[in-house]
Amino acid sequence: MKRAVVGTLLGVGFVVALALTTARQARVTCEVCIAYRGRQKCEEVIAVDRAEALMQAISSACSQLSGGVTDGIECNRTRPLSIRCSE
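The structure assignment produced for this chain is given below.
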């Protein structure tokens, strides 16, 4: 019985520590708007640094605008209409 309680407490502590560490690392918020094949999508993400945030925002927007792998690659190479980042 005591082992189960200790195990549960350790598991909960690990999850809390992981969540706090992840939250502390995410420091940059970027919103990117992309137009691709007549459609437009804006996405906002939070990441560790500006480069990662931009890459994730572009990828997220393009995943909703494109219709497959080839379209996705082309969309990811498209220059964004706007980029707004803050730390």
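Interim note for the steering committee: The first strand starts at residue 28 and ends at 36. Residues 2-25 form the longest helix (24 residues).
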